Amino acid sequence: MGNLLKNIRLTLEMIKWEHSIFALPFALTGAVLAARGWPRLAVLFWIVVCMVSARTAAMAFNRLVDARLDAGNPRTSMRALPAGRLSTGFVAGFVVIFAAIFLAAAAMLNRLALELAPLTLVILLAYSYMKRVTRWSHLVLGVSLGIAPSASWIAVRGSLDARIIVLSAAVMLWVGGFDVLYACQDFDHDRVAGLNSVPQAFGLEPAFWIARAMHAGMLCLLFWLVRLFGLGPTAMAGVATVGALLLYEHSIIFPRDLRRMNAAFFTLNGLISIAFFCFFAADVLLHH
Predict the structure, then answer these.
(1) Which of 18, 41, 140, 274 has the fewest CB within 10 Å, making it most exposed?
(2) Cβ(281)–Cβ(33) under 8 Å?
(3) Is 80 exceeded by the pLDDT of residue 95?
(4) How would you label 256-275 residue by residue, b for 16+ Cβ within 10 Å and e otherwise?
(5) Cα distance between residue 142 and residue 51, in whole Å
(6) What percent of the chain has pLDDT over 90?
(7) Does position 101 have pLDDT exceeding 90, yes or no?
(8) What is the structure's pLDDT at 90?
(9) How far apart are the C-alpha atoms of 183 and 90, rounded to whole Å?
């Protein structure tokens, strides 16, 4: 039992389980918009279970697929799999278990959620191969997280409204933009390994401008979202807050100085998602 608990702890550390916070607030925003208030507690519970289990399965699968590549990258060589502290069999079992939890949780929501759950898993798991295929893998990662608000809408209503896809697109650009920046750290390794990325295709300086364009596009979509749902000044203040945090994020890292990447990637992006949810949920709850 002690060894099992140790392996579970190592796996959760390896996949950065706590970073579920990136997508969860956007999923909850989709649920609040769909319900025009707080959804039923049971629905919220199963949405959270779906979110956490799907991300856990996808991240564990990613570490499994990339174990050989991680071993050759100085930044990732000490992860549990390439370092030999976890077996591939254990991590594969971990993926299967959390994928099953995700499917079971989707079944607790409604028929459409269950029908679309396998497709969601395919998208989430397919991302792990994208750097081998296309320089735009960052946007595939964006789609993987961007599914969250639309999926939550389906969880609440049992159908899909085109308006919520605007939020999914905004999340896609947000995630894609910061993943472009994050990939700059692996510029040298990816070139040697033959992996594709925006920095590899265009260079570090252009990659920063592409990330900025993606984040500008995100802000435009969020302003449109406010209009589509008839939201008020509180939601607009939320968009302004997201914009300010993004501006600060881009002001502390540079193509030739990536030392503050972890602060930009982890701390600020967590703040962005939480702030967004707080402002939008407050607007919906105050005025509807």
Answers:
(1) 41
(2) no
(3) yes
(4) eebeebeebbbebbebbbeb
(5) 15
(6) 62
(7) yes
(8) 85
(9) 28
The neighbouring-strand residues paired with 188 are none
Instruction: Please check whether residue 253 is in contact with residue 181, taking contact to mean a CB–CB distance below 8 angstroms.
Output: yes
Is residue 139 scored above 90 in pLDDT? yes
Token duo for residue 115: 């029908």
Lowest pLDDT segment from 76-90, 137-151, 179-193: 76-90
Dihedral sign (CA 165, 167, 168, 169): positive
Q: How confident is the model at residue 176 (pLDDT cuts 50, 70, 90)?
A: very high
Q: What's the one-letter identity of residue 51?
A: M
User: 260 vs 19, 36, 76, 265, 267, CA distance in Å?
Assistant: 18, 39, 17, 9, 10
Locate 233 and state its tokens. 């000044």
Contact status, residue 53 vs residue 190, Cβ threshold 8 Å: no
Question: Is-contact 35 41, C-beta < 8 A?
Answer: no
Specify the amino acid at residue 12: L
Residue 170 burial class via C-beta count within 10 angstroms: exposed 0-12, middle 13-18, buried 19 and up = buried
Q: Tell me how far apart the alpha carbons of residues 170 and 18 are, in angstroms, rounded to a whole number.
A: 22
**Which residue bears the tokens 């970073």?**
19
- Compute the distance between CA of residue 225 and CA of residue 168 in angstroms, rounded to an integer: 10
List the structure tokens of 91. 């991590």
Residue 248: name the closest of 275, 228, 227, 229 by CA.
Answer: 275
Q: How confident is the model at residue 4 (pLDDT cuts 50, 70, 90)?
A: confident
Q: Tell me the pLDDT band of 98, cut-offs 50, 70 and 90.
A: very high
* Beta carbons of 255 and 217 less than 8 angstroms apart: no
Length of the chain equals 288
Give the domains, in start order, of the chain with CATH numbers: 2-287 (1.10.357.140)
